[in-house]
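Usage

Read records sequentially. Each one opens with the input sequence:
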Amino acid sequence: MAASKSTPENQARLSIMLACIGAIGVLGAVALLGRNYNGELKQFMYASSGKFLPMFLGALMVSVACGIAGFALGFNSAGQKKHTQPRLSWIGFFMSAALLAASMAIFAAFWVMKMPISIENKG
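and closes with the structure output:
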């Protein structure tokens, strides 16, 4: 009989990998925000017709999707009786929870301090 690929250890490792992939999305969103932050106005300025908003929201969507999947996998595999390393499940669970909290905080900061600028071509 072949070993099942859906073992609790594999789910826990996948949970940690998803949290790490989501963290890359959060870091990308933070880099985009840092580039567009105006310290004098204390706002994030961006062109309303530019590529900033889709890239920023896309990075956050990837991180939230990875966070939700990692959270569910970590939680699901944590209480399994055949699990030899439940510590991995809890690490993935809490990393994913932190990722979701960071994503929501970044989105909230952006939403409160955003300032779209319309750029018109004259000529």
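Summary fields computed downstream for this record:
- The mean pLDDT is 88.
- The two ends are 73 Å apart (CA to CA).
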